[in-house]
C-alpha cells in the first residue's frame, strides 16, 4: 500500500527537496493549495463564496522548531483575521489552525500554543468569525482538547476536529456532543500505529458512522469532513432522523477535490464549507492529500508522465 509510504514521506526532508524541485509539482500543488500569499487566498475565498459556498482557511505550517516560527504563524493568522474583517467575510469564512504551528511540540508547548492561539481566536471573534483546531497525530490529542476547553470558556464557538480511525474517538465524540460544541469529523490522515488507530479502511468507515451517529444525536454542531459519497448520504439520513434542519450541521470538503459535488450540495440547500489552505509550507499537506485518495496520486503521476 502506497498510503503509509506517502505519509512517512510527508515528514522526510530529503523527499521534500526532491518533490519541491520537480518542475511539474507546482501546477499540481495549485490544484489543492490556493496560492502562497494571503491576497491569492482571499481571491479564492471571494470566488468560492460567490458560488454559494462557505470557507475555512488554513495557513500552512506545522512542526515548528523554535518560538520565533510559532510567532510568525500567529502573526500570519492575525493578518488573515484582519483581511476577513476588512472584507466583511466573517460570516462566510472561518479559520483552521494546527497547534503544532503555534509551538505545541516545543518545551512547555501546551502553554505556548495556547498563548499564541488565544490572540488569533480573539481576532477571529472581532472579525465576526471563529476558529477550528485541526487535529494532528495521536500524541497531540489530549493537549489539543485541553486547549480547546480553555478557549471555549471565553469563545464557545471554537471548534475541534476528531478522527474516526483513533480508538478513543467515540468517547471524545460523546464528550464533545454537548450544546454549542462544533466538531468536524474526519477519518484521519496521519500514519498511526495499530495500538491507537484502526488500520482497515472498512473498520475506519464503520467507526466514522458510529461517531457521526453520536454527534448528530447530540446537541452540538456536526461538521461532516468527508468526500465519500456514502458518508455524505448517511449524514443526510442521520440528520433527517434526528430532526436537524439544514443550518444545524454542515459538510466540509477540501479545496480542489470533488468541486462539482461541493456546488451540488450547496445548490441543494446544504451548508457546504471548503477547506482552503495557502502558504509556502505546502509539502506535508500535499503529501497527505496524495496518500488519502488513489485518484489524487494518479493525478500527480499523470502529470509527471506528461511533463514537457
From TrEMBL:
Taxonomy, superkingdom: Bacteria
Swiss-Prot/TrEMBL catalytic activity: L-proline + a quinone = (S)-1-pyrroline-5-carboxylate + a quinol + H(+)
InterPro entries: FAD-linked_oxidoreductase-like, PRODH_bac_arc, Proline_DH_dom, Proline_oxidase
Family annotation (Gene3D superfamilies): 3.20.20.220
Cofactor(s) listed: FAD
E.C. no: 1.5.5.2
Domain Proline dehydrogenase as annotated: residue spans: 42-299
Pathway: Amino-acid degradation; L-proline degradation into L-glutamate; L-glutamate from L-proline: step 1/2
SUPFAM superfamilies: FAD-linked oxidoreductase
UniProt KW keywords: FAD, Flavoprotein, Nucleotide-binding, Oxidoreductase, Proline metabolism
Name of the molecule in the record: proline dehydrogenase
Amino acid at each position: 500500500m502506497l498510503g503509509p509510504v506517502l505519509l512517512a514521506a510527508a515528514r522526510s526532508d530529503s523527499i521534500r527537496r526532491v518533490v519541491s524541485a520537480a518542475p511539474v509539482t507546482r501546477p499540481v500543488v495549485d490544484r489543492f493549495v490556493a496560492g502562497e500569499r494571503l491576497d491569492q487566498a482571499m481571491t479564492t475565498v471571494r470566488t468560492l463564496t460567490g458560488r454559494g459556498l462557505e470557507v475555512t482557511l488554513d495557513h500552512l505550517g506545522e512542526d515548528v522548531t523554535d518560538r520565533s516560527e510559532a510567532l510568525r504563524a500567529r502573526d500570519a493568522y492575525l493578518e488573515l483575521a484582519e483581511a476577513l474583517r476588512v472584507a466583511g467575510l466573517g460570516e462566510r469564512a472561518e479559520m483552521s489552525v494546527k497547534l503544532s504551528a503555534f509551538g505545541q511540540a516545543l518545551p512547555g508547548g501546551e502553554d505556548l500554543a495556547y498563548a499564541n492561539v488565544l490572540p488569533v481566536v480573539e481576532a477571529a471573534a472581532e472579525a465576526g468569525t471563529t476558529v477550528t483546531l485541526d487535529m494532528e497525530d495521536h500524541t497531540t490529542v489530549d493537549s489539543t482538547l485541553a486547549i480547546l476547553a480553555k478557549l471555549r470558556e471565553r469563545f464557545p464557538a471554537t471548534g475541534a476536529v476528531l478522527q474516526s480511525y483513533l480508538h478513543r474517538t467515540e468517547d471524545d465524540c460523546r464528550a464533545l456532543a454537548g450544546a454549542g460544541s462544533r466538531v468536524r469529523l474526519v477519518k484521519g490522515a496521519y500514519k498511526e500505529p495499530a495500538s491507537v488507530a484502526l488500520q482497515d479502511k472498512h473498520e475506519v468507515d464503520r467507526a466514522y458512522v458510529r461517531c457521526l451517529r453520536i454527534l448528530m444525536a447530540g446537541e452540538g454542531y456536526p461538521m461532516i469532513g468527508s468526500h465519500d459519497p456514502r458518508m455524505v448520504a448517511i449524514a443526510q439520513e442521520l440528520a433527517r432522523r434526528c430532526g436537524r434542519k439544514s443550518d444545524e450541521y454542515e459538510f466540509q470538503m477540501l479545496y480542489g477535490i470533488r468541486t462539482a459535488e461541493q456546488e451540488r450540495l450547496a445548490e441543494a440547500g446544504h451548508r457546504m464549507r471548503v477547506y482552503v489552505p495557502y502558504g509556502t509550507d505546502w509539502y506535508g499537506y500535499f503529501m497527505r492529500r496524495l496518500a488519502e485518495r488513489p485518484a489524487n496520486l494518479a493525478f500527480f503521476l499523470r502529470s509527471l508522465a506528461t511533463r514537457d
